[in-house]
Amino acid sequence: MKITFPHIGNTYIVAKAFLDDFGSEYTIPPFNTNKTLELGSKYTAESHCLPFKLFVGNLLQAHELGADTMLITGGCGPCKLGYFGEMLKKTVSEIGIEMEIITLEVPEQGLKELAARIKKVSGTSNYLNVAKVVNSAKNVAIQLDSLERLSRIKRARQLEPRSVDKIYGSFQREVLEVKGSKEILKFIRQTERKLKKLPQNEKARPLKVGIVGEIYTTIEPYANFQLERLLGNMGVEVTRQVTVSGWIIDDMLKKALRLPLEGEDVREARAYLSGMVGGHAHHTIGNTVVHAKDGFDGVIHLYPLGCMPEIVSQSILPAVEENYQIPVMTVIRDEMTGEAGFNTRVEAFVDLIRKRREEQLNGQNKMLYGY
Amino acid sequence: MDRIKCYMGIDVGSVSTNITLIDEEDKVIDKQYLRTEGQPIESLRKGLRDIDKRIGRNIAIAGVGTTGSGRQLAAAIVGADVVKNEITAHAVASQKTIPNVRTIIEIGGQDSKIILLKNHVVHDFAMNTVCAAGTGSFLDRQAARIGIAIEDFGAYALNSQNPVRIAGRCAVFAESDMIHKQQMGHSREDIIGGLCDALVRNYLANLAKGKRLESPVVFQGGVAANTGIVRAFEKALGVEIIIPEHFDVMGAYGVALLAGENARSGEGGTCFKGFDKLNASYTTQSRECSGCSNCCEIVQITMDHDPVACWGDKCGKWSGTA
Predict the structure, then answer these.
(1) Are residues B269 and B304 in the same domain?
(2) What range does the record give for the signal peptide (chain B) (predicted)?
(3) A35, B294: Cβ pair inside 8 Å?
(4) Distance from CA of A49 to the nearest CA of B (A)
(5) CATH class of A206-371
């Protein structure tokens, strides 16, 4: 059995740690490129969402490398993401290739079924061992997210252009050669030290922008034209609350252990949207409110074309915009989106919030920006 | 005689390339509106050569700004001090002409935008995302199909008694609906009048999306020359639409203003390479980088065998080489 998994941001490092610790055989598909999307679009309906097309692209590219089993995490329905597992199975049989799909979530059949699935991957039925491995994978995810946060802060303040990208980029490539959660954690700490040592502009008071929206499009750099890097290199400090580690803790572990999982963002969102419509609609609305209260300069809302929960939040965001006077820009991505148009919008948005801040500093309204 | 110190703004768009020269008082002293015709470098050189021939001896360029979808390219060739996106450039130009402007409608060759201002600051903007219906290229095409000159398009629309209702959601549907209406026997005037209404409906639905369009409303971009569209906007919004004097070159005007601002605030000269560099031979070369799995499309521009610009890569491996 050769396992593989789809790409979403740095998740490949978490999955790698998880599978290394079990000693499973696996292959990581090539990073998402236009070719991945082309492959995926070929075998999916035009109206499928971008994440699904890329999942299928990853699946096909991994299949070429000899993979026969794909691990995915469960979605939080009622949107399409909750059915990715079933849809992938159907697509695989339509394409006519052999690929087993294993969804890591607590299924209808209960914990026993999950244990059976994990056993398939790990080859062990020692629960203590499984729990240990899951825990260290979770720690890798947490450390990765903190590394990401550090890189965003550093990028907005770097003195030498692209110096953060150089260190961070080589980390993402070289980590492929590092085996096991222990070694990976060590490598993350090493990179962290390197980033911290980079000279920075201590006087900088960068613009602060929050990224909200559909989880895949916000996390996967290919799906958002590397928005975080783009903004960071313009000297903007980016914050993204929806993270891989958050997903693992809230949507996989807490759900499995039936722990309460309502955060500040969801509470804030209730004023605008009382019921759950699926996906990350609550987080999108709630985080926009939280960012506005924290004095952020603006919020960028991202989602793939046709994403139902985010269409709902897009229609609610103007109310948040009005109530808190925070500029929100929505950008929708699909395989037809041109990168140049995307960059122009982002650049114009940064101009907009920069002018707004100057205006507020020169005028009566002396707001404090978070710090 | 002393040369007049002036700033140049260049807007390289999909359909037209515009060049504007302004003096120290921000007055437009020369403007050029040229068709890009798929050759941005050629049209840019043609425009600059023309300016040089006519007034080159009387002026001294103290700053250059570029905007439009070809802004990087133009900046590399001419040597620009400011490279700005279209939205900012248009807003700056509009505010210069009508200081208290609240809404800017801009319809160009291949895109349309709406810019809303509040307290003299851009407060919100939108660009057309999925559809080119209602932009200049579509109107051009329809005028050609009906067999009238685009310059007469507005006059026909104004003569319409009962504009027909045309599906304006999408350029393809609009066209087939127009053909249907024409085969039903409606007059050309009414079809053109209906088309103008449909395009305005499409614009308001796709870009304004229920936002409040406060007065004063300024309409700029090449399509503002079309009186039919202007009247349709006035009808739909119920307010007067202001068309600035230099509506067709507002992007270039805006970025010229920014270049002036930049020159006055900073020290040091301009990056402008001078008119005499225009006769150098430029070649562009594109290829796919095989350095990693991103497979970026790299474009390199060389002037007389010297690389002057290179872009398209995500990692910065090539952009730093020129």
Answers:
(1) no
(2) none
(3) no
(4) 16
(5) alpha beta
Do domains A3-125 and A206-371 share one topology? The answer is yes
pLDDT of residue A366: 40
Nearest-CA distance B270 → chain A (Å): 23
Provide mean pLDDT across the span A10-32.
93
In a domain, B247, yes or no: no
pLDDT confidence of residue A365? 45
The CATH number of domain A3-125, selected from 3.40.1000, 3.30.200, 3.30.1380, 3.40.50: 3.40.50
Q: What is the pLDDT of residues A127-144, one digit of tens each?
A: 888 889 989 999 999 999
**Residue whose C-alpha is closest to residue B296's, from A249, A232, A222:** A222
Cross-chain Cβ contact B121/A355 below 8 Å = yes
- Plot region of B122 (φ>0 → left; ψ -120 to 50 → alpha; else → beta): beta
* Model pLDDT for residues A222-241, shown as the tens digit of each residue: 999 999 999 999 999 999 99
Name B234's Cβ contacts closer than 8 Å, sequence gap at least 6.
Answer: B240, B241
Whether residues B129 and A169 touch (CB distance < 8 A) is answered with: no
Average pLDDT of every residue of chain B = 85
Q: Give the closest of B125, B292, B314 to A226, CB-based.
A: B314
* B39: containing domain: 4-88+252-279
Tell me what the mean pLDDT of segment B136-153 comes to. Answer: 85
| pTM for this predicted structure | 0.82
- pLDDT: is B8 or B36 the higher one? B8
Is the pLDDT at A364 greater than 50, yes or no?
A: no
Tell me how far apart the alpha carbons of residues B274 and A319 are, in angstroms, rounded to a whole number: 51
What phi, psi does A324 have (nearest 5°)? -110, 0
Q: Do A348 and B87 touch (CB under 8 A)?
A: yes
Residue B165 near residue B178, CB atoms below 8 Å: no
Q: List residues of B whose CB lies inside 8 A of any A CB.
A: 69, 84-88, 111, 119-125, 127, 129-130, 210-211, 292-295, 314-316
Interface of A with B in 304-333 (CB under 8 A): 318, 327, 332
Handedness of CA A168, A173, A177, A182 (dihedral sign): positive
> What span, in angstroms and rounded, lies between the C-alpha atoms of B242 and A289?
37
Residue A290 sits at the chain B interface (C-beta within 8 Å): no
Mean pLDDT of B240-261: 93
Q: Please report whether residue B94 resides in a domain.
A: no
> Is the ipTM reported for this complex over the cut 0.95?
no
For residue A358, what is the nearest residue in chain B, using CA coordinates?
B121
Residue B36 CB neighbours (<10 A)? 21
Backbone torsions φ then ψ of B85, nearest 5 degrees: -75, 160
Nearest to B85 among A31, A347, A355 (CB): A347
Residue B246 lies in a domain: no
Q: Which of A30, A332, A336 sits opposite B293 (nearest CB)?
A: A30
User: In this structure, what CATH number is given to the domain that contains residue B104?
Assistant: 3.30.420.40
Element (H, E) at A242: none
CB contact under 8 Å between A348 and B125, yes or no, is yes
Closest residue in A to B124 (Cα) is A327
Residue with tokens 């009048």: B193
B268 CA: distance to closest CA in chain A (Å): 22
User: Which pLDDT does position A361 carry in this prediction?
Assistant: 65
Are A275 and A351 spatial neighbours (Cβ–Cβ below 8 Å)? no
Beta carbons within 8 Å of A26's beta carbon, 6+ residues apart: A2, A3, A4, A5, A15, A16, A19, A67
How many whole angstroms separate alpha carbon A331 and alpha carbon A303? 7
**Tokens 């031979």 map to which residue?**
B281
- Distance from the Cα of B142 to chain A's closest Cα (Å) equals 25
